[in-house]
């Protein structure tokens, strides 16, 4: 399923029943059930070590049911494969529409009543295991396996610090401590369909290495589509709801082509080359194309003080650095107070908020035209 079709499904998950039915009828149970099973497996994967085991999953629509085996490995990884298993730890059955809404719809309180479950089901329908409890190790393993899959179906959404630790990104713990400030600015976007772009995938030249933060955003924004760009091919990182492309952030034409293919984006995160000139190029091209109400994030401001990145080692940071750029943005927000300053730039007219922290900054997009303080207000204290 391509990203545009997936976005339609996510949007329909928050709409009325007729709208959702139209989308599910278009793609069919056979087309949607593997996607949903894979999403559960992605969300259920944990850094804990649950011991290993299988869960049987059924997804039904009208008179048909697609069946899958969710396998929890000893290292916490979860995979989904079509088929059945003889002796699952847990058996789960969902209606297609209920499962789509659970995974991709807005977070709504619904405590129970939308699935069927059987813990340690008998090998055959009608078969009785007797009155003896299962072997303690079998019982313990089944509880761990079932709990891992249940976590992937939970309406509880982990916070960013927890996700950064789970997926191994450097945004929290050690080099950077960004998770808390990200949480402050991103939580309002968490429950809506959106497109997130991150510049810089990581893993250097290997096509399957990197992508840790892309997985963080995929898990954090449960209704989001995540795009990552890098100067190297990162196609090995691609998976449902994650798309990568080869783009050099210093190339304006390549950035325009990226936006025309996959945009507009709601959130752009620049964690790319960190070269000061490249940061400015990406901002100049992508901020005007950002959706109104969107957020533009610049990481690793420390390179403003590194000559190798075009920074000023002796400080203060000059106009050609990312810090110098942010200083101008801060003043530009007040352009209505400087009537003789000439025509405002795009950034002056559309950056409505700037939040700067240690090594990271957030720019809010909107209409910066509230008007200045009237001329009749005295310019000197009375």
From TrEMBL:
Enzymatic class: transferase
Molecular function terms, GO-annotated: demethylmacrocin O-methyltransferase activity
Transmembrane annotation, as ranges: none
Biological processes annotated in GO: antibiotic biosynthetic process; methylation
Keyword Membrane: no
Name of one Pfam family that matches: MycE_N
The protein's Enzyme Commission number: 2.1.1.102
Source taxon at top rank: Bacteria
Keyword Methyltransferase included in the entry's annotation: yes
Pathway entry: Antibiotic biosynthesis
Location of the Methyltransferase MycE N-terminal domain: 6-112
InterPro entries: MycE_N, SAM-dependent_MTases_sf
Positions in coiled-coil regions: none
Keywords, ordered alphabetically: Antibiotic biosynthesis, Methyltransferase, S-adenosyl-L-methionine, Transferase
Protein name: Demethylmacrocin O-methyltransferase
Lineage, uppermost ranks: Bacteria, Bacillati, Actinomycetota, Actinomycetes, Pseudonocardiales
């Amino acid at each position: 399923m391509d990203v545009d079709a997936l976005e339609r499904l996510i949007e329909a998950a928050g709409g009325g029943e007729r709208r959702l039915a139209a989308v599910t009828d278009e793609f069919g149970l056979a087309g949607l059930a593997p996607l949903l099973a894979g999403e559960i497996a992605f969300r259920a994967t944990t850094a804990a070590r649950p011991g290993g085991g299988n869960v049987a999953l059924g997804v039904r629509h009208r008179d048909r049911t697609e069946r899958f085996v969710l396998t929890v490995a000893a290292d916490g990884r979860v995979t989904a494969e079509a088929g059945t298993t003889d002796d699952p730890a847990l058996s789960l059955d969902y209606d297609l529409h209920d499962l789509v809404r659970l995974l991709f719809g807005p977070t709504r309180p619904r405590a129970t009543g939308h699935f069927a479950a059987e813990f340690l089901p008998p090998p055959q329908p009608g078969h009785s295991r007797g009155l003896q409890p299962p072997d303690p190790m079998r019982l313990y393993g089944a509880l761990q396996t079932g709990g891992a899959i249940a976590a992937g179906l939970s309406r509880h959404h982990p916070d960013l610090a927890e996700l950064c630790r789970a997926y191994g990104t450097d945004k929290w713990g050690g080099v950077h401590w960004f998770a808390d400030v990200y949480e402050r600015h991103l939580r309002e976007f968490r429950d809506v369909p959106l497109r997130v772009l991150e510049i810089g995938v990581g893993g250097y030249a290997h096509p399957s290495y990197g992508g840790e933060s892309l997985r963080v955003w995929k898990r954090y924004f449960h209704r989001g589509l995540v795009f990552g760009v890098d100067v190297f091919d990162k196609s090995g990182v691609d998976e449902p709801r994650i798309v990568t492309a080869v783009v050099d952030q210093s190339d304006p034409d390549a950035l325009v082509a990226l936006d025309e293919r996959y945009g507009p984006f709601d959130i752009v995160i620049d964690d790319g080359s960190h070269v000061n000139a490249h940061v400015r190029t990406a901002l100049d091209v992508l901020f005007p194309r950002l959706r109104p109400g969107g957020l533009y994030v610049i990481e690793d401001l420390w390179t403003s003080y590194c000559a190798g990145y075009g920074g000023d080692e002796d400080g203060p940071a000059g106009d050609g650095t990312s810090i110098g750029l942010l200083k101008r943005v801060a003043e530009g927000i007040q352009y209505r107070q400087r009537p003789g300053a000439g025509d405002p730039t795009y950034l002056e007219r559309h950056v409505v908020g700037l939040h700067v922290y240690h090594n990271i900054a957030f720019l809010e997009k909107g209409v910066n035209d509230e008007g200045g303080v009237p001329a009749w207000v005295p310019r000197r204290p009375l």
